[in-house]
Amino acid sequence: MCKRIEGIVGSSSTCQEHRPSNAKEPMISHRIPDRPWQVVATDMFTWNGENYLVTVDYYSRFFELDNLHSTTSAAMIHKLKAAFARHGIAETVVSDNGPQYASKEFEAFAKSWEFTHITSSPHYPQSNGLAERTVQTAKALMEKAKADERDPYLSLLEYRNTPVDNFKAPAQLLMSCRLRSILPSTNKQLQPEIISYKAGHAKWLQRQQHQNKYYDRSTRLLPPLHNGESIRLQERGYWKPAVVIQPADTERSYLLRAQNGQVYRRNRRHLRSTNEKHELLTVKPVGVRRNRQGYFSFLAIEPEVPVSQCLEGFLNHGQRYTHLQLF
């Protein structure tokens, strides 16, 4: 009887569409950088009617906070260039899939300044968790400064001088010294002090292990998906039919084709295996284009070549994308 019920539910499109969300998977922590400002995360946010950009160092937790007078790629790139001129060019920049980061301008910026740009899975902000947490920290600093009618830059300065996890302050880890502020300090306290990388690495590794221990208590590892497998994609609370094309270039992410013909990149948590069979759309590719929002599109005129083959040549060129749309 139970198997019969499972079979009925599995073959019912309505039941499949309204199933609960997948369980969380075990945490995959970012690799601890070898030195300060080697890997940075960046994100944009709005506070009190104004737009801001945060750029945070994965090693020291030191972050830059910039007010943006425009939300264009050019304005954001200008602020990142200023940060890189102060601290050096990061080897890796991690961001979400916002149109500013998916633009041709940012792609050209990454190429000319010689850094690797990695984007998080769409609709999965925790893969860019450090930037998300830093945004909350920046908002809290500005909220408190506004409530007390104080200068927010002094609040930011004191944050940079405050030890992280009872270890060292972000300024000490990045610049090997404390920063002079309006709080009393001695000349000795402001003298440069080299922080051992081994001590820093051990501290961050211990913190990661502690976080993983508590996060993983309520998680479950989901089985991998296979090319051509019929699945369900979670969009706005509903599970929509889709077909797996191939694994994406980020961990636990897949390229898949939805019923509307669009090709998405999604995290495994938003994908569910199903016994249904969804036909894979085939197209004849005649070119690739990119619109202002940073979306890549195949221009197709008739069914002929499987989508996976269309993607193959495109992906081999190392292009970055938010999603691909078939016409």
From TrEMBL:
SUPFAM superfamilies noted in UniProt: Ribonuclease H-like
Gene3D superfamilies: Ribonuclease H-like superfamily/Ribonuclease H
InterPro entries per the UniProt record, alphabetical: Integrase_cat-core, Retrovirus_Pol_polyprotein, RNaseH-like_sf, RNaseH_sf
Full protein name: Integrase catalytic domain-containing protein
One of the GO biological process terms: DNA integration
Organism of derivation: Synaphobranchus kaupii (Kaup's arrowtooth eel)
Integrase catalytic domain location: 32-192
Molecular function via GO: nucleic acid binding
